């Protein structure tokens, strides 16, 4: 890096993050910019991400929300960040994942490097030969209802760089854009969730 910046993120890290995002494909976010569009000014766009992240001035744009039908009825919300924001998220993921992944339980298969749903099915199959019972449970709307303060306490404990904490805090506060183009702030989302929940002591 040739420029003095408060946070140490190499341009190579942003480049590697971009390659991962491109390989994952994905739809356009609120700015309607596809990966192909992003690549028309690739060098400038990647520099902008790097410059803002290293200076601490990176603020994520709203997330486009779409509703996906569930197999058993109902719908679930899916958030689609912009291409630029997915690259910024990938920079953080690639830096933090090696630190926190070893802390996960061996039977945790979701969103883990080198693990998949098929691995989980294979493990369940093996255990079916040793047990004649199964426990099936799910935390309804886990990502919608997780306490952000508790989440940030965990992030602060394990994140070694201040810029990672800063980025994650900002991502948790980013507004959503619904299918009608209306923005819903994080505070309103959180208030709506709390009012829907029964008090638990």
Properties at a glance:
201 residues; alpha+beta; 4-stranded mixed sheet; globular
Percent of residues in helices comes to: 40-55%
The count of helical stretches stands at 9
Helices and strands: which structural class? alpha+beta
Portion in strands: 5-15%
Looking at how many chains there are and whether they match, the oligomeric state comes to single chain
Characterise the protein shown here.
It is a single chain. With 201 residues, this protein is of the alpha+beta class. It contains nine helices and four strands. The chain has a four-stranded mixed beta sheet. Strand 3 and strand 4 form a beta hairpin. Helix 1 packs across helix 3. The radius of gyration is 19 Å and the shape is globular. Mean pLDDT is 87; it is low at 191-201.
Secondary structure elements and their pairing?
Blueprint: H1 11-24, H2 35-39, H3 42-55, E1 63-69, E2 75-80, H4 83-100, H5 117-128, H6 142-145, H7 148-158, H8 162-172, E3 176-177, E4 183-184, H9 186-196
Parallel strand pairs: 1-3
Antiparallel strand pairs: 1-2, 3-4
Helix pairs in contact: 1-3, 1-4, 3-4, 7-8
